[in-house]
Amino acid sequence: MTATEVQVRWQIMQRLLGPTMGRLNSNVFSPMLHRAFNILARAGKYPEPPQIVADSDAQYEVEYIGPLPKAQRAQEVIAIQGYIGDVQGMLELQARQGENLESVADNIDFDTMNRIFAEMRGVPANILAEEGEVKRKRNEKRDAVQRQAEAQEAQALSQADKNEAQAQQIRRVQ
């Protein structure tokens, strides 16, 4: 059996089992888990939540991590990767036609896509930098590039001034 055949069989299995598992999750498992959680919470089996959580109307969500949900998330990753391939093809076509290369890519939020990929692949959350940290790093890089450009411009102006002074000195000597 080829890899393509395996992938097709896997997709068929997911199409057959996906709706059934979805109904089981929403009609059986989720209500059962919510009830068990609430019973244990009322019995005082959980530690007190942080004050910020206690003060808010925060809700919890059950995330299923079994083989089928993981496989479904893997399909989402494959779909996103296929989309990126399509976008890359569009960018190449735009480049050949001399159009603006950024017009198609501007539709994609790459930071969000990166976080979705990490979540779907089960990457530990502590590996990813927080969004505020990412913004800070980008601002530092942007500022450093700007300072470097300003320094180069100042150097060029200094060199031009030096050349002008030398030219005036040569004119005086003549």
User: Residue-averaged pLDDT, rounded?
Assistant: 84
Order of helices and strands: HHHHHH
Radius of gyration using CA atoms only:
29 Å
Helicity range of the residues?
over 70%
Work out the number of β strands: 0
Q: Report, as a whole number of angstroms, the end-to-end distance.
A: 89 Å
By secondary-structure content and strand pairing, the structural class works out as mainly alpha
- Measured by DSSP, the beta-strand proportion falls in under 5%
Largest sheet: none
Poorly predicted parts: none
Q: Helical stretch count? A: 6
Question: What shape does the CA trace take?
Answer: elongated
> How many structurally independent domains?
3
Structure commentary:
By secondary structure, this protein is mainly α. The protein folds into three domains: 1-64, no CATH class; 67-128; 129-174. The chain is built from six helices and no strands. The protein has helices spanning 3-42, 51-55, 67-97, 102-105, 110-120, 131-173. Helix 3 packs antiparallel against helix 5. The longest helix is centred in the last third of the chain and has 43 residues, at 131-173. The protein is elongated, with a radius of gyration of 29 Å. It starts with a helix and ends with a helix.
Describe the structure in brief:
The protein has 174 residues and is an all-alpha fold. The protein has six helices and no strands. Helix 3 runs antiparallel to helix 5 (110-120).
